[in-house]
Amino acid sequence: MRQSGSPPARDRAVADFAAAFGGRPTALVRSPARVNLIGEHTDYNDGLCLPAAIDLEMWVALRPSPGAAGRGGAIELVSETEPAPARVDLPPPGTPPRAGTRPAPGWAGYVEGVAVMLAAAHGDLDGWQGAVASDVPKGAGLSSSASLELAVAAGCAHVTGLPWDARSMARLAHRAENTWVGAATGLLDQLACAGGVAGHALLVDCRDETVEPVALPEEVAIVVLDTSTRRRIVTSAYADRRAECARAARLLGVPALRDAGLGLLAEGAWRLDPVTYARARHVVTENRRVLDMAAALRAGDLAAAGGLLTEGHRSIRDDFAVSSLELDAMVEAALAAPGCYGARMTGGGFAGCAMALVERSRLDAFVPAVREGYRAATGRSSCVLPCSAVAGTAVEPFRDLCEVGPPGPQNSAGDGRRDGLDLGGHRC
Ligand code: GAF
Known about the structure:
Strand content: 15-25%
Keywords: ATP-binding, Carbohydrate metabolism, Galactose metabolism, Kinase, Magnesium, Metal-binding, Nucleotide-binding, Transferase
Protein name: Galactokinase
Low-confidence stretches: 404-428
Number of domains: 1
Radius of gyration: 21 Å
Order of helices and strands: HEEEEHEHHHEEEHHHHHEEHEE
CATH superfamily: GHMP kinase, C-terminal domain
InterPro entries: Galactokinase (IPR000705), GalKase_N (IPR019539), GHMP_kinase_C_dom (IPR013750), GHMP_kinase_C_sf (IPR036554), GHMP_kinase_N_dom (IPR006204), GHMP_knse_ATP-bd_CS (IPR006203), Mevalonate/galactokinase (IPR006206), Ribosomal_Su5_D2-typ_SF (IPR020568)
Mean pLDDT: 91
Distance between the termini: 23 Å
Bound molecules: 2-deoxy-2-fluoro-alpha-D-galactopyranose
Helix content: 25-40%
Pfam families: GalKase_gal_bdg, GHMP_kinases_C, GHMP_kinases_N
Number of helices: 11
Family: Belongs to the GHMP kinase family. GalK subfamily.
Structural class: alpha+beta
Largest sheet: 8 strands, mixed
CATH topology: Alpha-Beta Plaits
């Protein structure tokens, strides 16, 4: 994650590329994190969610490997946050999949998984070298894994000349995470990172995999609230929650909890033990909140939108039991701070980040008040980050900033800043 005062991730990736491979990259991949406004633990229940891709981003500076087109090349990546590089010899292992093939450990497994799925779907891949720099904190509920998966997919697609379709690439990255890395997550994260639209949240229907952009009112800011606690999804109770939801659906006689409403839940309550009932109630009410939130945002009714966030936090805390003392304390601190419409934990839970919708004109008062409130409650420091909703994963040609004079293009957030021209105090 970016330390205050360090250069932007884009520039760090370019510098790390030169240090690791020599010379300049030919292209840059930008791959965003996501924040989920509402619709938590609904994706694997065929349900609805409302995420946004945000301007906490991973950048990859890349170049095709010399003379490594087609068979026999490799994908070689270094990362500023990983002690060991990731290397995938081409063609990647497991194409066709063989019993007993094991994923590489750590981050290399995600790189390998994406290469395996791409090769299975599209045939031979060309080799490339890349340096990864990221402002997306790991294990914080902001989808650092999906951001990496989509970045690798975009790098491979660019170098090999594969077509880029956000939804198919999201599915492919999701397959890599589920079947190669072995993390049985839903499709929310990959669809959000790949399909982001500047200035919009995305209304995602996880049953038919449709995505509908919902404009965010200009006067409101999404604020990410990092508790500075971390979890690992593979070892968390995520799988238990999936099993509890599947059990609830089975006992209620529906294909997935998406198909249950409050009426059916009340009728079938006698079949469910109290824990299974509570899990089902969260999912059923959360799907409703997603639709209500989309309607509130479209109507510009921020009081209603905020109320839904806060109600959603109570549901995920009390019925779904994936919050933590720190996440609860952060939500309380946000709700007590000036300009806050509503707040909730975001992502898989157990640790990581909450988010709030905040009146943009009151951010200056909101940010220090949350920090102080959270510290008073937990003794911990935190990171409070106002974010913009940005476009999904994309590749751009590398232009050395020393050779480029202003004016440049608008950035992905469309907010008037220009990508990569903030050199963080560094001069060419
Ligand atoms: C994690 C998972 F990866 C998503 O698929 C989703 O289930 C989320 O937790 C909870 O909404 O981010």
